[in-house]
Amino acid sequence: MTTRRIVVLSAGLSTPSSTRLLADRLAAAVTAALADRGERAEVQVVELREHARDLADHLVAGFPNTALAPVLESVAAADAVVAVTPIFSASYSGLFKTFVDVLDRDALTGTPVLLAATGGTARHSLALEHAMRPLFAYLRAATVPTAVFAAPEDWGATEVGTTLDGRVGRAAGELADAVAARPPATRTDLFADVPDFTSLLKG
């Protein structure tokens, strides 16, 4: 059984958050879908709020600190990414965009990505298509057809065919199919060729 590395990005700003709740539900569904296809999932959930200052440091310094570097490496080496953000002002959050801004331009090329979001009203659901999908198209990621949006009323919906669980399951299946069709990703160190400061000082 092949082990696939799945990185789940959660851009929720509170603890607990509906964004993290949706991220966990998607992670569980992807794990189950991969198991159905004879694949084992190794899931890493990244709470971006825990790296807010690290991201700001990166923007100012131009390189990641020791806390952020492993996260960027994990994303670049992932077999798939689940990206979940709250929607503010009809688009992804500033925290989520900042993380995308510091990613290596080729980190997600060809990587299967499942897009998901939470919001205070279902009217924000189109942000997945007019904001998030173009963003990941720019990064040349392979986004799956089904994106998952969760409004407050979705958490308790029970109508067959329209439930949040139904959308989560469909999207997870699409991501699992995309992952199973690809060879395992190779882990590379994005910063292996960067000299340390001692070497720079020695000239």
From TrEMBL:
SUPFAM superfamilies in the cross-refs: Flavoproteins (SSF52218)
What molecular function terms (GO) are annotated for this protein?
A: FMN reductase (NADPH) activity
Q: Does the keyword Oxidoreductase apply?
A: yes
Class in the EC hierarchy, top level: oxidoreductase
- Known InterPro entries for this protein? CE1759_FMN_reduct (IPR023932), Flavoprotein-like_sf (IPR029039), FMN_Rdtase-like_dom (IPR005025), NAD(P)H-dep_FMN_reductase (IPR051814)
Which keywords does UniProt give here?
Answer: Flavoprotein, FMN, Oxidoreductase
| Top-level lineage group | Bacteria
Enzyme Commission (EC) number? 1.5.1.38
Kindly give the Pfam families that the UniProt entry links to this protein. FMN_red
- Identify the residues that the record assigns to the NADPH-dependent FMN reductase-like domain, covering every copy: 5-155
Q: Write out the coiled-coil annotation as residue ranges.
A: none
Q: What is this protein called?
A: FMN reductase
Task: Tell me the lineage of the source organism.
Answer: Bacteria, Bacillati, Actinomycetota, Actinomycetes, Pseudonocardiales
